[in-house]
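Please, structure for the following, as C-alpha cells.
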Amino acid sequence: MDLVIVESPAKARTIEGYLGGGAKVLASFGHVRDLPASDGSVDPEQDFAMRWEVSSDRSKQLKAITDAAKQADRIVLATDPDREGEAISWHLAELLAAKKAVPAGGISRITFNAITRDAVKTAMANPRDIDQPLVDAYLARRALDYLVGFTLSPVLWRKLPGAKSAGRVQSVALRLIVEREREIEAFTPREYWTVEAGLKSANGVAFHAKLTVLDGRKLDKFALPDKASAEAAKARVETASFSVGAVDVKNAVRNPAPPFTTSTLQQEASRKLGLGAQQTMRTAQTLYEAGHITYMRTDGVSMDGSAIGRARDMVMERYGRDYVPEKPRHYTSRAKNAQEAHEAIRPTDFARSARTLGLSDMEGKLYDLIWTRAVASQMASAQLERTAVDLVSEDGQVELRATGTVVVFPGFLTLYTEGQDDGLDDEEGGRLPKLMVGDKPATEEVKADQHFTQPPPRYSEASLVKRMEELGIGRPSTYASIIQVLKDRDYVLLEQKRFRPQEKGRLVTAFLERFFERYVEYDFTAGLEGKLDDISAGEAAYLEVLRDFWADFKPRADDVLGQKPWDVEKALDEYLAPHLFPPRADGGDPRQCPGCGDGRLALKVGKFGPFISCSNYPECRYTRQFAGANGEDTGPQSLGDDPATGLPVEVKSGRFGRYVQSGEKRSSIPRDVDNLDLAMALKLLSLPREIGLHPESGLPIVANLGRYGPYLLHDGKYANLKDTSDLFEMGMNAAVVKLAEPKGGRGARTPAEPLAVLGAHPETGVEVKVLNGRFGPYITDGSVNANVPKGGDPKAVTLEQAVELLAERAARAPAKGKKKAPAKKPAAKKPAAKKAAPKKKASA
C-alpha cells in the first residue's frame, strides 16, 4: 500500500477517492516544523546551521504519518507544486528518515497542477526525487528573513519606541507606501484651462472638439494657465468659422490578456470584487482543493494543450466561429525561473459554471472571474476604429480636434474587459458623424473649463501588488502576507481601499532609509530575489548567498545598535528636515517655533510616537504632528454632514491618533475599522450606547470605546469586547454573559474605584479619571498617567487641567523605571542557571 502525503485534509479526501483502496492519503496540515522563534535558530557562526523544531500543533499529525509510514510499502510526497511545497516534502522526508520510518519502497515526490483524477493518476505514474535546488532556495529565503527579522527588529525596539518589527521585503513594501505619501504631500497643484466646442454636422449629429491650435501655435497642456487667457481663447473660437481640414481613420487591434497568474488574480479581484490579497488567496485555495481550478500560486501564463482546446470549443459553442482565432493563442511567461513558471490559473473543467458547482457567493464570483479570463484568452482580437478630425478656421490660426473610437468587432470584449483599462479610451468619446474634408459644421456652444493637476493616487492593494511585481520585490505568493503584516503592525491604514502610512510606519521607513539605506533599496531587494531564483535553478549555492549578505549586514546592525537614542533622534531630525521643515514662503526660519517665537522646532520620539516640539519646553508647550503636508497639519478630512444636525463630520488627527468630530462630539477611531465612512463615523459619535438595565442590579450596562478598544461598563466593572461591531450589535443577554465571565490571567483584580470621573478627552473621546495610586493621586486616560500637582485636591481637578497635564506628560520622554539589579552569578559548585525563555518572535 502507498502512503500519500498532501497538505490539506480536503485535498486528502478527494485524492483518496481517486486512488481507491491501494493508497492511504494523509494531510500534513502545511509545514510540520519551523525555526523556533528565538535567537540562535540560524547560527551564522556555524555556517548558518538551522535548528528546526516540530510545531506543537503538528506533533499529533506527525505521529499519525510516522505510524502509517511504518505499515506502507512506499511513501509518496504530493505537497503543492511550488518552492514551499517542495520544502514541506523535504521536511517530511528528513523527519521520517530520523524516525527510521522509511519503508523498503523508499520515498518519492510527485506534483500535479490540478486536483483531478487524470492529473493525480498521471503524477502517480511519474514519480521523481525531491528537487534539492528548490529546497536550497527555500532554506536561503527562510534564513535571510529570520536573520533580518531577529537582527533588525531588536534595533528598532531599542531606538524607536513603538516600532514593532522590520522585515526584508516588508520594509521595502512599506517604503513604497511612504514614498507615495511624500509625493502627495509635496505635490503642488497647477492650474490649467481647456476650451471645448459643441458642434453639429450638416445632417444634425452633435459632437465635441477641443481647441488644439491658437494663433498658429500648437497648445500644450498648460498653454492656457488662467481664466483670462481661457476666456480670450474661447472668444476666438466663438467668432471663428470652421471647416474640416483633415480626417484620419486608423484601425487598431486589441488582444486579450493571458490567463491569471497569482499577482494578476490578486489585482483583478481587488479591482472588480473588492477583495484583499489574502481573501483572494484563501478563496482560491478553497477552489483549488475542491478540484475546480488549477494551482493558484504561479507566475506562469500558459495553459496545456487540452485546456486550450476545451476553451476554444467553449468559445465556438457560445459565440460562433468568428470569435475563435485561426490559431490557438500561446502566451509566454516573463518569469526568470522556469521551474516556478507553472500553468496559469484556470478552471479544471470549462463546461462547469459557478452555479452548477454549488459554490458560495464569493467563491462563485472568483470562479467566474477565473473562468471568463481563461476563456477570453482564447478568443479573437477586438477590432477598433480610431478617428481624428481636424477643424480649421478660415484664417488657419485656430484649430479644433475631435476624436472618437468605435468597436468594429468586439471579439473577446464581448466576454471580458480587464480592470480599469478596457482599451476603449473613454475620453476619446464614441462614434463621430460622417465628416468629409471641406464640410462646415455649425458651432453650437463653446465653454472654457478650469482644471488642476492631481497628485499620484495612494496605493490600493491591486496597484501595490502590481508595483512590487514590476520592481521584482518579493514573490506573488508572499504579497498577501506582506500586506497583512503592514496592517497588523499598524504601519499602514486602509482608508477607502487605499493605503495611508501611519506615523509609526513613516518613522520606521525614515530610520531604515537613514541607517540601513542599502537594505531598503528596490534594486538591492530585487537583486537578492534574483539570487534566490538562481539558487532554485541550480545556478548558485545558497550558503554563498547567505555569507555575502551577512558579511555586510551584521556589522551595520551592530554599529547602529551601539548608537545612543538621542543621537538616532538627532540624525532622523536632520534626515527628515526637508520634509518636516521646508522653506517658508516669506523666507523665514522654517524651524522657528510659532508658539513662543524664539524656540526652535525639532523632531522628538516619545512613548506614543514621533512629534514636533519646541526647544523651549517646558516654558513653551507647542507641539505639532509628525506627519503632514510640507511640514504642516494636513487638516481635517470631510466624510459628509450629520443628517440629524446638519453639522459636518470630519476625520482629524491629534496627539493620541485619529478621531472623528462633529460639532462638540468626538470619538477615537478603533484599529479594526478599515474603511471609515459616514455611517460608521456617526455610529462612533453616538457612543456611549446604553444596552439596557441589568436584570439583577437594575443598573445600566453601557458599551463604549476606550484607549484599549471596545468595552462594557456596569456598576464600576469593565469587560473587554473583541470587535468594534459588538459595540453596536451586542444585546442584553450577550452583555450579561460577558460581564459574568471571570477575568483572565493570574493575579487579575477588579480596578480601583476612581476618585473622580472628569469626562471624555476632547481629542480621543476616552474617559479621563483621577485614581489613587501607590505614590498618590494621578490622572489617567488609560494610557498616559500624570500626577496630580502636590497640594492639589484630586477631586477638584477639571477636565481642562487634566488634558493639559496629560499632554505635558506625553510630550516628555517616558519616565525611566528603576533597573533591576543584575542577577548574581551562581557559585562554581551550583548548577547552571536555567535557560532563558525564548524572546518574542520578530516578523520577517
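The longest helix spans residues 132-159. The chain is about 35% helix and 20% strand.
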